[in-house]
Amino acid sequence: MNKPQPDITQSDRFESTRAAHRDETAEDYVEAIAQLIEQTGTARVGDLANCMGVSHVTVTRIIGRLAKEGLLTKEPRKPIFLTDAGQSLADQCRTRHEIVLAFLLAIGVDESQAQIDAEGIEHHTSQQTLGALAELTRTLRNR
Predict the structure, then answer these.
(1) Rounded Cα–Cα distance for residues 33 and 109 (Å)
(2) What's the CA gap between 7 and 107, in Å, rounded?
(3) I need a labelling partner for 110 at 20 to 30 A (CA). Which of 5, 48, 64, 70 fits?
(4) Residues 42, 29, 121, 4: is their CA dihedral positive or negative?
(5) Cα dist. 129→1, 37, 78, 119, 132 in Å?
(6) Which of helix, strand or coil describes residue 53?
(7) Which residues are CB-neighbours of 140 under 8 A, at least 6 positions away?
(8) Residue 44 class from Cβ within 10 Å (0-12 exposed, 13-18 middle, 19+ buried)?
């Protein structure tokens, strides 16, 4: 059964949301870089700008930050590569996305909307909730 949780204050809930928002950009970018590398063999600033729907300047700024955080390596006019930490984060993001997407599809959300919704929900869902969603999805699929 569920373990009793300590009382959670309103500020605790908002702090969790703020933390998720801080991590969301990094997660989206490493996930997109991993997908580009998987699909085309390489990830470049221009490809990422097209994929994310933002300017080259925005991508360059974010890539610089992610490099400082140790998630990727970059050199001017060269492809972007994920570090082991970046690839691990991309894999975690993909797994979370797949769990949320499978749940939304299992409850009858059409695929295009489920893809959109999963992209937002995945960043704000705890491991405990993801586990529950995965279990419920298995149950729904076995009916």
Answers:
(1) 27
(2) 31
(3) 48
(4) positive
(5) 14, 30, 39, 16, 5
(6) coil
(7) 106, 107
(8) middle
Bridge-partner residues for 72, per DSSP? 82
Spans of the chain below 50 pLDDT? 1
Residue-wise pLDDT for 78-90, tens only, equals: 999 999 999 999 9
pTM for the whole thing? 0.79
Q: Are 92 and 123 in contact (CB under 8 A)?
A: no
CA torsion 90-92-98-104 (nearest 10°) is -120
List the one residue out of 68, 36, 31 whose CA is nearest residue 50.
36
CA separation for the pair 118, 95 (Å, rounded):
11
CB hemisphere CA count around 86 (13 angstroms): 26
Residue with tokens 């699929």: 141
